DNA sequence: TCTCGATTGCAAATCGGTATCACATAGCGT
DNA sequence: ACGCTATGTGATACCGATTTGCAATCGAGA
């Protein structure tokens, strides 16, 4: 087991969950990958844990979500993605490079809703557009980011 | 055909699409249901149009989305939902009654992102919490909303 | 170490959504 | 109104993602 998994173990125990090897590795991997879906996590981990089952990935993500340790991202046209829970924030999805960027959404808008009579408990914002680095690259077709470059192009159809 | 379908016909023709009975009825139904998924639309319409196929619902929603006549909603844990296109707005999902409420999000935040160097083209915000009417009802367990009361309760598991 | 309940992993089922293709229809010119 | 042709519709098969059932295994406390 990787040394930094002690951290994950602590979080799991704090939530009253058993700290199993799989859970610690999944949390650890999710922390490294950032915004990952079940498939990516599975494919990443199965290389080092050949016996890992997809079921375990799904079960674990579900359990961790229930325990409040991971968030589920909400992005249209994308499958379900997960991230380690932290302070609430929005996401920005760049349609050029497909990168998902955490936006430090100061909850200003949530507050304005709050004052309008709604109780806002969760924030699932996602903005789509073009990120800074893609703008910087301008109209050049240089694509440097290796991750998910296809599925989010201008065509509005689902990238399956 | 329902008399008010003339409205739908106009929209379809304006987008260069053929105005078929199914398309008009699907648009009309979507307008009545508000935020519906393909399944709800199908189940709602198949009662009056027994020959309707799910494929047609999916095809039509896809075509209408491409034509810009319907939006796709992005709400975590919910399947793909659709609504008639209008001015951009966010959604508020009440975890008590399960209702989805349109929020007149003035894009103030989108603008602040814009000035921060991002180009925001699409806004897919969704807030979760407790809506006004549920707050008004207080802790009383009276549930008056007939629609979708089960799938969105406090338990974070997917309501399938 | 032992024991028991929780977790894991396999296989199969399910589910939402898509691809294919024959048939029906709308919309156009006549 | 009639017939032609592109387009839309619907039945079925199909797909990948996710869930379920259940037996084997593991983790944590006695």
Write the layout of secondary structure elements.
Two copies of one chain form a homodimer.
Chain A: H1 5-14, H2 21-33, E1 36-37, H3 38-46, H4 54-66, E2 70-73, E3 81-84, E4 90-94, E5 100-103, H5 108-115, E6 119-123, E7 126-130, H6 132-136
Parallel strand pairs in A: 4-7
Antiparallel strand pairs in A: 1-3, 2-3, 4-5
The structure holds a DNA duplex (30 and 30 nucleotides).
Structural notes for this entry:
2 copies of one chain form a homodimer. With about 160 residues, the first copy, chain A, is α+β, with helices and mostly antiparallel strands. Chain A is about 35% helix and about 20% strand. Chain A is built from 6 helices and 7 strands; from the N terminus they run ααβααββββαββα. Chain A has helices at about 5-15, 20-35, 40-45, 55-65, 110-115, 130-135, and strands at about 35, 70-75, 80-85, 90-95, 100-105, 120-125, 125-130. In chain A, strands 1-3-2 form a 3-stranded antiparallel β-sheet. Chain A has a 3-stranded mixed β-sheet with strand order 5-4-7. In chain A, strand 4 and strand 5 (about 100-105) form a beta hairpin. In chain A, helix 1 (about 5-15) packs across helix 2 (about 20-35), helix 2 (about 20-35) packs across helix 3 (about 40-45) and helix 3 (about 40-45) crosses helix 4. Chain A starts with a helix and ends in a 24-residue tail after the last helix. Residues about 140-160 of chain A have low confidence and may be disordered. The structure holds a DNA duplex (30 and 30 nucleotides).
């Amino acid at each position: 087991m990787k040394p930094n998994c002690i951290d994950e173990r602590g979080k799991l125990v704090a939530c009253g969950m058993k700290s199993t090897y799989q859970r610690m590795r999944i949390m650890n991997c999710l922390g490294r990958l950032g915004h990952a879906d079940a498939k990516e996590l599975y494919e990443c981990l199965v290389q080092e844990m050949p016996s890992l089952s997809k079921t375990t990935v799904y079960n674990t993500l579900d359990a961790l979500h229930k325990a409040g340790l991971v968030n589920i991202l909400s992005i249209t046209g994308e499958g379900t993605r997960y991230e380690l829970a932290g302070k609430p924030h929005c996401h920005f999805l760049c349609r050029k490079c497909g990168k998902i960027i955490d936006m430090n959404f100061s909850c200003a808008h949530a507050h304005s809703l709050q004052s309008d009579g709604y109780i806002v408990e969760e924030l699932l914002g996602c903005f789509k557009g073009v990120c800074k680095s893609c703008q910087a690259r301008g109209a050049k077709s240089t694509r440097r980011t290796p991750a998910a470059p296809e599925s989010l192009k201008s065509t509005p159809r689902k990238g399956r």
